[in-house]
Amino acid sequence: MIVGKVVGSVISTRKSSKLVGNKFMIIEACADMQKESCRLVAIDPIGAGIGEYVLVATGSAARIGSGMDLAPIDAAIVGIIDDPSEL
Amino acid sequence: MIVGKVVGSVISTRKSSKLVGNKFMIIEACADMQKESCRLVAIDPIGAGIGEYVLVATGSAARIGSGMDLAPIDAAIVGIIDDPSEL
Amino acid sequence: MIVGKVVGSVISTRKSSKLVGNKFMIIEACADMQKESCRLVAIDPIGAGIGEYVLVATGSAARIGSGMDLAPIDAAIVGIIDDPSEL
Amino acid sequence: MIVGKVVGSVISTRKSSKLVGNKFMIIEACADMQKESCRLVAIDPIGAGIGEYVLVATGSAARIGSGMDLAPIDAAIVGIIDDPSEL
Amino acid sequence: MIVGKVVGSVISTRKSSKLVGNKFMIIEACADMQKESCRLVAIDPIGAGIGEYVLVATGSAARIGSGMDLAPIDAAIVGIIDDPSEL
């Protein structure tokens, strides 16, 4: 998984029906966890707020781990970091 | 997921029979979401146009999320961004 | 998916029995689609020739999309580009 | 897989219910195995300690290989290196 | 897939029970196939020796292609290159 900060969100009205009801948060990966690129978009089943540091799973883990096996999701917030100063 | 701009398309007549009927759009990932490389090819079940900013899922999510589980697809447009100026 | 040029092939006699019968083509990804590295090896169920530009799927899509679900394949040529000058 | 050193851990109280009971260890990949970024977060079913060098599997192997098929896990410690000086 | 050279091995006594019986070889990817990082660890069901050039599959293909579907394996040697001078 990677740790990153929620820095914004995007809205997509015309989208796959399997994505309806999801929030799309923009995550900026922590500098030393910049998995290929510094930002990515993740769904947020946990309910993190802008500015919070979160744990993000990518790949099939995002879809299956969020109970949305058939949805086109490859990144999901799976936890909120208690104390980002420990990073 | 990543956000990118539709910058073109490619045509492949001699291809896997499981890909027939799909459009292959060239996506240029937003600068800060350049997942490994700045461009990739994605199928377009949503119907985005050239110049539009789109949400792209990669990996098994692309195949399964587009309802084409058995097709050789590793990237798919899954939504069109309402307001790219928010990015 | 990525687009790349077929630049050669490799031969492996001592290999997984599940790979017997496959050709292993060396693909050089187009400069702006250099997914992590500029070259990779893909199987070629389509029958592309050296010098042709091809569409390549990676990950589980390569295995499943080529009907070789149980084979150790993570990249496959899935189409030949009609007009590479459009890239 | 990659080899890395356990350099810390993160705590996430508000998280996916499927992650409860897991430790989240920060792994710094060995310099020449820096898979996309030098750090990542992995679960630790093996019980490695801070400072130990570990073998880490990523992708679906992490979830399935740890017997947590339905959990949002994309990286897991799967072994502790006997003699890191051999690396 | 990628092509790389077997440059060493690592031993892990305390490991996932699903990995018992496997050799863990260190592979240095060929310069132009450096998938994200130049080295990785792969299991070796084929029996390659140190110094040999091998074909490596990564991701779910490694696990499933090696007949170890439930093991935490994300990279596997799947063939030995007949003539590395062709690379």
From TrEMBL, chains A, B, C, D, E:
Pfam families: EutN_CcmL. Keywords: Bacterial microcompartment, Carboxysome. SUPFAM superfamilies: EutN/CcmL-like. Its main location: other. It is found in: Carboxysome. It comes from the Bacteria. GO terms for cellular component: carboxysome. The keyword Transferase does not apply. The keyword Iron does not apply. This is Ethanolamine utilization protein EutN/carboxysome structural protein Ccml.
